[in-house]
Amino acid sequence: MLQDYDTYDATGLALLVESGDASPEEIVEAAIAKIEEVNPVVNAVIIEAFDRGRATAKEGPARGPFRGVPFLLKDIHAQWAGVEYTQACRFLKGFVPQEDSPLTSRYKAAGLVLLGRTNCSEMGLLSTEPLLYGPTRNPWDLTRVVGGSSGGSAAAVAARMVPAAHANDGFGSIRIPAACCGVFGLKPTRARVPESTDFGGLGVDHVVSRSVRDSAALLDAVRGSPAESPYYATDPVRPFVQEVGEDPGRLHIAFSTKDPMGREYSAAVSEAVISTAKLLEEAGHHVEESDIPFGSTILEQGQKLMIAGAPAIRRQIDEWAARLGKTPTAEDFEPYTWFLYSAGDSVKAVDLLIAQQALRALAETAISFFHQYDVFLNAVLAETPPAISEISFSPESPTGGWERINEWARPFNASLANMTGQPAMSVPLAWSDDNLPIGIQFTGRYGDEATLLRLGSQLEEARPWADRMAPLR
Questions:
Q1: Interval 347-384: pLDDT, tens
Q2: Is there a catalytic annotation at residue 256?
Q3: pLDDT in tens, 246-273
Q4: Could you say which of 149, 209, 426, 457 is catalytic?
Q5: Is 211 a catalytic residue?
Q6: Active-site annotation holder among 173, 196, 209, 215
Q7: Residue 58: which CATH number?
């Protein structure tokens, strides 16, 4: 067994295999031991497939760039033949797909060794506290949330179970958990990875990781092509991993300590944003304060886009019902999910058209703003992670938790990049006085992950985070 397993990122582990300094079997056994050690406390891995992983390591993983590296799949998308898939939903409990999804096949072709599935919020909604599996606990403070919906993956990486794990992002579900757990999370440009089409194309799959280079190389391993989606941006001029360590040049960066609605962040988060702006200025970038100019009117229209969530959930559940031959009932779902399902039939076509128009208006404003700036800097979340159950929804008030979520997550902070399709990343550059991570968000131009990765690796070198160990207490 590899004794210092948890000090390596995925690229480092792959280099050990390539050099012959460690075998896939040694690395996989070390990962399983780490999961068995810390998962009972964190509850990040909810479906184990250790025997499958051991068999893959013994038989020989594919000779891809991550040959022999342990990996976990989120329990949303990336279906895995022969392994239960539930979306943390009681309605799907017991469902076992018979074939891999395309994304799972790409992960396997990259040489990754799959060991299980990670916890998430039910059907990707809200925080990672599903009734089916229970809450995932934050490795930095076990009483705190990990965000959603890729909370299990982010917690698994923060707790050093695996160096990177699958995630997806429809309204911030890569960046919010990354911010909560102190790991790196890049949401690629719309349709860059050919898997998710959630909420009318707002969603995209990728990973959370310990290092920028892992995120870049994994994006290279699974990214699609223009032939796979009409939304696909142009291909990068070179592999994304080659951007890591390259000089980003002198970027024109705007920053703000306010959310898109003009509300201030908490003192700790504002201080972290300002500190990052100073760090960037010291690195030679042109940095200036500028609130993102979407304004309350457009954002109020943008809220209508959330209307699309109800029919989207209705469609998903009805499709699963037909596939499984089951009739959905309120007892099969959590209160908020059932609320959306029930509301799905009442949304008028004209309301969806209005939402789509608001989406286009947001995108056009973003295009204008990013003609002036290369990157926009703000925070992923307005506060550090709240306590578990603080943002949950009760049967008596299935939408009552929104007030607290709006206060903490400021949904447009993260979801704005989903609406416009732009790439955005959460970088773990700050911790609060009580040792909780603060994720700093950078949003780039449409199709320009390269600039974000160059900037991310520059910040990783200037203010390293990989050696910070979560206390698990």
A1: 888 877 877 777 777 778 888 899 999 999 999 999 99
A2: no
A3: 999 999 999 999 988 888 999 999 999 9
A4: 149
A5: no
A6: 173
A7: 3.90.1300.10
